Amino acid sequence: MKIELSPAQARELTGDKLYAYSAPVSQVDLVALLGRATKFRGQRVFFQSADRRRTLLGLGALRRWRGQSLAALAPQVERLRHQWVNLTPNEGACPLLLGGAAFDLAAPAAPWWGQLADGEFVLPEVLLCQTPTAATVTLLVSGGAGAANRLSELAATVEALLAAPGDPAAPGPVSGQELAVAAWEDLVEQTVAEIKAGRFAKVVLARQLAVSGHFAPAPILARLGAQQPNTYRFLVEDGSHFFLGATPERLLAASGDRFLTASVAGSAPRGEDPARDTALGNALLADRKNAGEHRIVVDRVAKSLAPFVTTVEVGERQLLKNRDLQHIYHPIGGARRPGVSFLEAAAALHPTPALGGEPRAEALAWLRDHEAGRGMYGGPVGWLSLREDRGELVVGLRSGVFTTDTGRLYAGCGIVAASQAASERAETRLKFQPMLRGISDQWTLK
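Now predict its structure.
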């Protein structure tokens, strides 16, 4: 990949602007390339859509934003849209922000999250984007005396990465331990009592499973991609910590004229054969507890989206099936109202009652008082365009935060008046399985 700039362009690389240079590249396995990009360890981000039609890999951090809510990030993104220059207009360069926000910035920060505790968005120096029909790389540099040289250095790095051999290494054995089980079951009972007393309609409680072994993002992402269809894969990395997972749940996607979201709530295991699987799915749809829990989410999502669309469109209730779990699912969307921003709408949706509770403010206050920090678990994760007001954010579920030798997996469940601690613990154990299987074939639980 050779950088070709006209004399006028080379003279232009000054001032406080950002400069983007885009070029087509060959299709490659971006997860394998991520594993080879050790030069950028600690500053890699990844996102893949559930339909596998968009895969993004960011390397290097030209800028970082930590501890930002979606609402606070919105004006900063808008300013960035006016600060970058496209050096290759025929290639359609499009810098993106990749990363995610914390679930709740007002909650206590948990030390095992490192610098990711309050969320992080990154403007990558190198952005590789693949669709089924095209692959491009966009290089981004700050203006100044060394800008042209930096573009050439990045181009040479990308060329070497694309040509390098190698696949993600096979994982080794992993041991795990559920944390504070008795205390969590007591919290379930306390929460049910508060719901019956009328304080809440629903609260989503999360718990943790500690794991130890040897962890690297590329092997885990590769395994999750093979094992978990119909899920979004994501990675946010900062220094020695990385957060990744494979979530079935979209928070909000924005095209030029539409918003798309969903309600995902209520869970059941998959069956060992088609007949059993169908029976379990039908039982989930017919179950009054799960149906009631799901209706709370649908109503709140529709109400939160309404100010941003001309009409809220709620699709048919259906089952969303993955390897280990099936969920009740409603697609929800609508045509964008003129002048409303993607991040403004996403901020109004997050967190939905599928992750926080209802009423939202009261449920979040309860979680702050009774849970260890969630960090980015359950927070919005995805990408934002700097060319136009579009992007996609998903909910950071079926996930964990890791260092090279330790990790914490998270799983949650919706608590309503009919909830029982033992069954809720069993549900969260089932929800740990996708990540456990993703990190290793050899794991033991204490």
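The longest strand covers residues 55-66.
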